[in-house]
Amino acid sequence: QVQLVESGGGLVQAGDSLRLSCAVSGRKSVNYNMGWFRQAPGKEREAVAAIRWSGDSTYYENSVKGRFTISRDNAKNTVYLQMNSLKPEDTAVYYCAAGGWLPSNYWGQGTQVTVSS
Q1: CA distances for 8 relative to 21, 26, 100, angstroms
Q2: Strands 111-116 and 10-13
Q3: Position 24 pLDDT exceeds 90
Q4: How far apart are CA 14 and CA 108, in angstroms?
Q5: What whole-number distance in Å separates Cα of residue 104 and Cα of residue 15?
Q6: 3-state helix vs strand vs coil in the chain, percent to 5
Q7: By CB neighbour count within 10 A (0-12 exposed, 13-18 middle, 19+ buried), where does 44 fall?
Q8: How far apart are CA 108 and CA 36, in angstroms?
Q9: Cβ pair 37, 95 in contact under 8 A
Q10: How far apart are CA 87 and CA 83, in angstroms?
Q11: For residue 17, is pLDDT > 80?
């Protein structure tokens, strides 16, 4: 079993930055592909970014390319999502996910990101 705990969400203004963290624990946690998804009110959950367990391959949703960066520190069992130049349309609950590609076998509880205009 894998446990995922997100942190770092909050309320910011358009143009600001936030860094989300996902602490991973459990069996063989360093070997999992990891990802970030988001779900805005009334919309389906969508993949935002993902990274292979080795860190040598990443995925980004088109609207976040050039603004968001996913990274991982396997020594700390932590995955990060650096979000720059935030826009009101980035407002959503952000979820960390692990396992598979795009990662979706295990989920965190989510962290709210709100971007005001």
Answers
A1: 6, 21, 24
A2: parallel
A3: yes
A4: 26
A5: 29
A6: 10, 55, 35
A7: exposed
A8: 10
A9: yes
A10: 10
A11: yes
Query: Residue 24 in contact with residue 36, Cβ under 8 Å?
Result: no
For the stretch 63-114, pLDDT in tens is 999 999 999 998 999 999 999 999 999 999 999 999 989 999 999 999 999 9
Structure tokens at 51: 């990274």
Which residue type sits at 72? R
Site of tokens 């390319």: 65
pLDDT at 30 over 90: no
| All residues at 6 or more sequence positions from 44 whose CB lies less than 8 Å from its CB, including other chains | none
| Stated length of the chain | 117
Cβ-based neighbour number of residue 37 at 10 Å: 24
